[in-house]
Amino acid sequence: MFKGSLNWIPDNPSHKRRHIIMSSAKAGWSVLIAVGIVCVFMALGFSIGKGVSSNSRLSADQEYLTLQGELIQLNTRVENIQRNLQQVAQREERAFMAAADMNIDFSRMLEQFTLENTGTDIFRYIDDIELRILLCERLAHAEQIAYDSLAVLLVEKADQLRHTPSIWPVNGIFVSDFGARVDPFTGAVRYHKGIDISANTGTSIFAPADGTVIFCGWSGGWGLNMVIKHSDIISTRYAHCSAIDVAVGQSVQRGDLIGRVGSTGRSVGPHVHYEVLRNGIQIDPEDFIIRAGSAEAAF
């Protein structure tokens, strides 16, 4: 049988030397134990590595699910924004139709887009959301341009309305309308080129719209009267006044005091003969007046 020996020589000379006898059996068992210890450490390392890998994969799955949930929430918010923008476009379309009788189809500014089921393809899901955002940005830009146009249009409309004679010039009783009527002086049928509003002498006469006074004075059957120019084509006349409170060239605004009711000229009693002229030709003032009753004049 193979036998051998090992000498253990200590570093310190004062220590005792040891003589170890090693047989083949002992050597075999020593190698076997060493190999076993190595295998145990390898198995332990493999187990730890597998656990770390499993935890890493679990963590990645959790992050993926979290990211997918956040994308779903983001997509819902984008859908709400898109829906709100479409509602704004519809209301703006109605505003344009009301303001200028313009039938503008804003729906073509935003294509109908349906989000497909992308499954687990998160990158395609992101692309779909980006496309939604791009379409919303496009509509928002179009809405901004449309709102600017609408603002300009409304400003022009507001200026036009301020210069349109739309209220009664005096608080009185409507007694004679526009058109053919029996002349109170001759009894013959005669064309009446304005409307008559009866009121006590001295009752205030107000400007029915913004404009500039272009005439004040006496003229024929109108007696003391005045004319206000409201635009390039529209003007108004107030006849049979007892007094005039404005001067030629003066600018007036709707509701300003301009004169007093009287019975000057060809008149049978205190009243205002009120005319609206388009390009110098009398037209029916009732086409402009906003009524608040069947007989009462209103402001």
Mean of residue pLDDT values? 76
The number of distinct helices, counting runs of at least 4 residues, comes to 2
How does the overall form come out from the CA principal axes? rod-shaped
Q: How would a textbook summarize the main sheet? A: 8 strands, antiparallel
* Overall radius of gyration: 49 Å
CATH topology of the largest domain: Glucose Permease (Domain IIA)
Low confidence ranges:
109-115, 293-299
Q: State the domain count.
A: 3
What's the CATH H-level superfamily name of the largest domain?
Answer: Glucose Permease (Domain IIA)
How far apart the termini lie comes to 135 Å
Q: What is the strand tally?
A: 15
CATH class of the largest domain: Mainly Beta
Walkthrough of the structure:
The chain contains two helices and 15 strands. A hairpin with a 3-residue loop joins strand 8 and strand 9. The chain has 299 residues and is an alpha+beta fold. Residues 109-115 and 293-299 have low confidence and may be disordered. The chain folds into three domains: 3-71; 72-162; 173-287, Glucose Permease (Domain IIA). Strands 3, 6, 8, 9, 10, 12, 14 and 15 form an eight-stranded antiparallel beta sheet that branches. The protein has a three-stranded antiparallel beta sheet with strand order 7-13-11, with no helix packed on it. Strands 1-2 form a two-stranded antiparallel sheet. The termini are far apart. The chain is 39% helix and 25% strand. It is rod-shaped.
